[in-house]
User: Fold this.
Amino acid sequence: MSETNKVIRGKRKERLGEVLSSKMAKTIVVRVERRFPHPEFKKVVTQYRKFYVHDEKGEAKPGDRVRIEETRPVSKLKHWRLVEVVERNTDAALLKV
Assistant:
């Protein structure tokens, strides 16, 4: 499509996370970290969430930092797709799960 005929969609959610697994075909598992102050105690809480992400080219590997974007349902569990690999993992031995 040309620049003038580009389809404008609503703002899609984007998240930054770490790849935990890439063993499935065209699918990666990404852990997204969310930090927020606890409503009552005001202590900073870290919450993690796992997303199944569509990776068409299979470019993300465990330990990589990736940017993902919400999309239409691709399968039963996949509602996100890989936008880009932000940072490559240099040492697979230090991968924390």
Q: What stands out?
A: Strands lie at 14-24, 27-37, 44-54, 65-70, 80-87.
